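Private note to self, pasted from the team thread so I don't lose it. Backbone tokens:
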């Protein structure tokens, strides 16, 4: 009898502004590296290996085909254009395809693009390969980031940082492997077969593993605009990547001014990649505890700024290489942590934020080295490198602005929730009376 007449406890309210998911999405639960996480880490390493082998490969391709320096820039522009197109179309694709279909299909087309680039019989075929490689590879990158965000929720900062540790290792290895194979009868093209083989192995191992679906949210949230904070953090991710791109493309040229030979300067660029790897290993350790991302971002920008000044102003080769290494340490965690902030600020529209960040990054990746190169042709490379301090300053401004916009949004959401609770209480009180 009492079980029918006793007062029922009110049902817990459902907060539709937060994604539903497994309990480990909460910051209070342990971070789990399950099958989708390991798959994402490995697939990202494959893409990064191909991406960082692409630049040296274009140089080797030029020696074979005899095209101009201007055409080298066209290869990079097409790669970046493919990346921007991937960012523009990802939301459309993610709404129609499951995560696993999108991952494996983009991986397949990435391999096809790499094949066109390496095995094409001339400039038109290799240019097409560069565009396909950028489009499919960036799509694969974006769905990997989506899987990690879906799986780890509020701990996505740690997942993305750890994933980029493997990416940093691939960045170090790719030019070394490419150069070693170029000196053998096998040839440099075989380097692009390595990530393809690893992707096949990953498919055979994980093709039946279920991947986390995009969290189900209230339909009204999908139709809204991204918050201002989300856009600012996306710009932060893109501009921080531009800092790296400019060093990668023009850092060796700057080292020539210190007296290094062309071969030594190209080899010294590996110090920057090594710094990125060490920085990401440190970042993965620091982000094991939540709440450190903002401090780490400010510290990374400070290290990048100070070490770039050392690289930029010294005329001693050893100090320049040290500065390049320390720039890598500073740059290392800017992109993964900025992306984590972008997705966190998305207000339930992570796929849209993820796609828009890649679109902005693709545009910036094409524009920033072009701008620096144009300035160098007119005013000299040392003067042109003033672009770097400007980019670092922009990063500081958009980080500060994004954090302020996020606080304003949080206050507005809190006020709206308080108003909704008060209205609900009044309605309940009216029914009782």
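Design output:
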């Amino acid at each position: 009898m009492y079980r029918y007449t006793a007062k029922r406890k009110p049902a817990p309210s459902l907060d539709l502004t937060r994604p539903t998911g497994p309990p480990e999405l909460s910051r209070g639960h342990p971070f789990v590296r399950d099958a989708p996480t390991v798959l994402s880490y490995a697939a990202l390493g494959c893409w990064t290996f191909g991406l960082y082998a692409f630049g040296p490969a274009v140089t080797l391709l030029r020696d074979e085909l005899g095209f101009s320096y201007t055409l080298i820039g066209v290869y990079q522009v097409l790669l970046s254009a493919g990346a921007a197109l991937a960012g523009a179309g990802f939301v459309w694709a993610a709404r129609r395809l499951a995560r696993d279909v999108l991952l494996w299909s983009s991986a397949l087309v990435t391999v096809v693009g790499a094949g066109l680039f390496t095995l094409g019989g001339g400039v038109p075929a290799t240019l097409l390969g560069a565009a396909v490689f950028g489009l499919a590879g960036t799509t694969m990158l974006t769905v990997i980031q989506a899987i990690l965000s879906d799986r780890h929720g509020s701990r996505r900062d740690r997942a993305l940082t750890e994933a980029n540790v493997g990416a940093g290792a691939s960045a170090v290895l790719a030019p070394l492997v490419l150069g070693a194979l170029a000196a053998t009868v096998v040839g440099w093209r075989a380097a692009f077969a390595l990530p393809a083989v690893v992707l096949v192995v990953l498919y055979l191992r994980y093709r039946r593993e279920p991947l986390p679906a995009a969290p189900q949210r209230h339909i009204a949230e999908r139709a809204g605009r991204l918050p201002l904070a989300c856009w600012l953090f996306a710009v932060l991710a893109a501009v921080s990547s531009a800092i790296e791109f400019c060093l990668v493309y023009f850092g060796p040229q700057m080292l020539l001014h210190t007296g290094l030979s062309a071969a030594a300067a190209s080899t010294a660029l590996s110090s920057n990649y090594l710094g990125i790897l060490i920085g990401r290993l440190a970042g993965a350790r620091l982000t094991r505890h939540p709440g450190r991302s903002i401090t780490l971002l400010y510290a990374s920008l400070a290290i990048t700024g100070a070490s770039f000044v050392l690289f930029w102003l010294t005329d001693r080769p050893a100090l320049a290489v040290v500065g390049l290494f320390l720039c890598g340490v500073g740059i290392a965690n800017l992109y993964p942590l900025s992306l984590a902030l972008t997705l966190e600020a998305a207000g339930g529209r992570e796929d849209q934020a993820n796609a828009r960040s890649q679109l902005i990054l693709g545009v910036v990746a094409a524009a920033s080295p072009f701008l620096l190169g144009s300035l160098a042709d007119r005013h000299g490379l040392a003067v042109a490198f003033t672009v770097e301090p400007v980019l670092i300053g922009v990063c500081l401004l958009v980080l500060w602005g994004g954090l302020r916009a996020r606080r304003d949004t949080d206050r507005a959401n809190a006020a709206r929730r308080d108003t909704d609770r008060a209205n609900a209480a009044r309605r309940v009180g009216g029914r009782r009376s």
